Amino acid sequence: MAKIQVFFGGSLQSEFPLESQEEYAVGRAPDCDIVIDNLAVSRRHCLFKSLHGQWMIEDNQSANGTFLNGQRTYTQALKHQDRIVIGKHTLLFDDYGSGHTHQSVAANVDKPAEPQDEGDATCFVRRDMVAQYVQRSEKGNMVLVLEGVRRKVVPLDKELTVVGRGSRCDLRIDGWFVKGEQLSIVKQQYGYRVVHEGGWRPLRVNGNKVREAILQAGDVLTIAGHRISFGSL
């Protein structure tokens, strides 16, 4: 019998036996079989499906993608100890019949995945700038700076920083078409990723319209007439 183990920050959060259904939905929506309440996860992010006794992982056109053992995937057969990453969470496919222990699975989670260049035109990953970014970030905390008369500085010291009109956002911006949660800044092992959460107003990074992008020190984000700089103190 197989099960899914959900990890966050290397710690086991929950387990879900795959025993009574042939399909399990994973996502942020409360009616999913495996609920992960995180803005980096789509409402219906992916599916675990049993096909002729073989478990499969299938991405459900998610905004941020589903990654199997470090590679973006859309539909793939699963094997014991396969690691599925969605947002900041890691899901381990654990096959009881293989005889492996929980410790070996947990050890597998702690191994960082190498960042992959997905070739997506809406996501700009400049590998030649990563080393420079790391050097800069070591000198001080990375921050978002809302420019203008109402200047605000928000340190990026959390795994997820939210920009929008909502009262619970870390950086609040106004505007007719600004959503309650407009942008997500996700802290990753190799940098920071900005994700546009939809709505009428497009996101631009250094003038380029994007849905998501890896940020570099000195980048300028513009949305709904607001100019936000990304850099270090």
UniProtKB/TrEMBL annotation:
Domain FHA: 24-73
Matches recorded under SUPFAM superfamilies: SMAD/FHA domain (SSF49879)
PROSITE patterns: FHA_DOMAIN (PS50006)
Annotated InterPro entries: Cell_Proc_Reg/RNA_Proc, FHA_dom, SMAD_FHA_dom_sf
A Pfam family hit: FHA
Gene3D superfamilies: 2.60.200.20
PANTHER family: NUCLEAR INHIBITOR OF PROTEIN PHOSPHATASE-1
Name of the featured protein: FHA domain-containing protein
